[in-house]
Model the fold of this input.
Amino acid sequence: MESGIININKPEGVSSARVVAMLRRACGLPCGHMGTLDPLACGVLPVAVGNAARLFDYLLQKKKTYRARFAFGSETDTLDRAGEIVKSGGRIPSEEEVAAALPAFCGEYDQLPPAYSAKSVNGVRAYALARQGREVPLSPKRVCVDSMELLGEECAGVFSVRIVCGGGTYIRSLARDVAAHLHTYGYMASLVREASGPFLLEYSVPPDRITAETWRSYLLPPDRVLELPSLCFADEQAKRLQNGVAVSCAAEDGRYKLYLNGAFYGVAQAENGKARAVTKLV
Done:
């Protein structure tokens, strides 16, 4: 089975699931996205084709870069502009106040996910409960924000911010929390994902370019996007690894891209002088 990753530039107003379905029809192979984007958001959406989906865990937690617009003075039920206003009349902070507030959220902090999110609550998606008007009992989650840079005030009360953060961070919640720090209300007015790990916006392609005739030309080899060192084995050692048997190696403990007889095979784990295949793509 052919496998790899296509770096999609998801347009605004389309769900990540719909984009994946479009690619699945074009490729005729199983597909899955590596880190969802809300319909309101646009930008980098890596989509795994074929067995490359097995690399999900290695890529999902990579750093992500966003350009967001935070609107202050009111708050919506979804924490973005698609929702209904539930709080209003908040003050509009100055550009200097916003700039001074952002460093407080750099590093690790406990973030409460939005009620309208895909978080599971007793087996039910949080957004399903919220749409029914039911209470959504969510717990804060520790997230990591590497940096927040104020790019400027675009219009009255709307500020552009660039954010670098770890996986699982909700930018909508960040807008709410920054606003609360400034003793006002806020929501996310727009969001562009500029990077997700090694995938960059400038090298992404819109989903309508992906057809049955073109998709292979946009397919990135799985080993090209894995940011791991390499281990190479051949002949009898390669055969043993394919059969699930560990082999001797001099590599330091850790994860490696695994090549067998010159071809990329998957991911290996080296430990105590032994290497074994832990994720196979073929």
